[in-house]
Amino acid sequence: MKTQSYPLMRKSLTDSWRSTVGWGIGLLAIMSLYLPLYPSIGGSPQMRELLASLPQEMIRALNYDQIASGPGYTQATFFGLTGFLLMSIAAISWGASAIGGDEEAGLLELTIAHGVTRTQVVLERTAALVIRILLLALLVLVVILALNGPAQLGIDPAKVVAGVLMFVLLTLLGGTGALVAGALSGRRMFGIIAGTAIAVVGYVFNALGNQSQDLQWLHNFSPYYWAYGQSPLVSGVPWASVAGLGALSLLFIVVSVLALRHRDIGAS
Fold first, then answer.
1. Which keywords does the record carry (predicted)?
2. Which parts of the chain register pLDDT below 70?
């Protein structure tokens, strides 16, 4: 009998294809709703006047200080807000369910009883998480490139790739944070709390750090700032941030492997 390669990854992808399609439809709807409105909202003189009348602290907190340009509008409305919210929820949900959710439901013991190693469980389910995020990111890339001209966004296509790359790494960090908390605790809820904390604290620290020079030190602890602080849609790929976000996700995966290998499954 022929043995299929990567059976756990295949099963994770098969079991979650409906949710992946659903999140894709959500991202597509948001991009189709927001981005074509740039000429009449972000780039309009009325919007510039409105922004000038608002408190600058609020403008900086919402990252709306560059919204009058196409890249700034795309960053503020999609990558930094609505897209970030949807993609983070998806990644955190998948990451929390990968180990913690399975153990909580009593399925992880059955999986390991079928001759797969604990390391294999973590790595294949992490691979499924990465693949789902990449599929959604590919959709985002294609849609933004397609709308770039008609919506008059004026973004260099190479910089769109840079923006999507940072979008992937930022949301992957939330997903792997949820994964490691689930592997350490055996509980899906702890994974959701950890992944949400990474996303929310990163966003809040970035917003506070934008308020004054005295608070800019908070940017050092904000994955959100690491990803978007250098404006990848304008400046290209911030390679130091790529290394930092990638290394932290890799650390979370390694800790997940070690945790699951040394824990008494089902005893949590």
1. Membrane, Transmembrane, Transmembrane helix
2. 1-3, 42-43, 266-268
Q: How far apart are CA 139 and CA 27, in angstroms?
A: 8
pLDDT at 266: 58
* Class of residue 211 by CB neighbours under 10 A (exposed 0-12, middle 13-18, buried 19+): middle
How confident is the model at residue 267, as a pLDDT?
54
pTM over 0.85: yes
CA-only gyration radius of the chain, Å = 20
Tokens of 201: 């604290």
**CB distance 268 to 187 below 8 Å:** yes
Q: How far apart are CA 108 and CA 213, in angstroms?
A: 49
Tokens of 89: 């929820």
Task: Report the alpha-carbon distance of residue 117 to residue 243 in Å, rounded.
Answer: 29
Helices (H), the chain: 7-15, 17-34, 45-53, 56-61, 70-74, 83-96, 102-104, 107-112, 118-148, 157-185, 188-209, 223-228, 232-235, 239-262
Q: Which of the 8 DSSP states describes residue 69?
A: S
pLDDT reported for residue 125: 96
